[in-house]
Amino acid sequence: MDMMRYDHAMMADHVSAQANLVAHMNDLRTQALNTVNHVAGIWTAHGSDAAQQAYHEINQAFSTVFATIERHGAAIGQASTNAGVTDHGVAAGFRGL
């Protein structure tokens, strides 16, 4: 039977990599908002609220992405903690023998 292994250091590295991804995504968000800002005057001059809609949709999309990444990181952190607690419990059981 294959055993599941938890590599706590690798899990922490993965969570750290997620932080780098969030920084990159924040940069992309800023670029997208700046691009909309660049053309917003043209849309507004023609009576359109497309810029406001674009701002809203960009912010909504990135907020959803960030929430997903945050949940993923929290789940990995919790899995690592749970594995550590279980490992300590098993070790204590063996010491008690």
List the helices and strands and how they pair.
Elements: H1 8-45, H2 50-95
Helix pairs in contact: 1-2
Overall description:
The chain is mostly helical. It has a domain of 26 residues. It is 87% helix and 0% strand. It contains two helices and no strands. The longest helix has 46 residues. The mean pLDDT is 85.
Question: Main attributes?
Answer:
2 helices, 97 residues, mainly alpha
The biggest sheet, with number of strands, parallel, antiparallel or mixed sense and barrel status, is: none
Count of extended strands = 0
What's the pLDDT, averaged over the residues?
A: 85
Residue share in helices? over 70%
In short:
With 97 residues, the protein is an all-alpha fold.
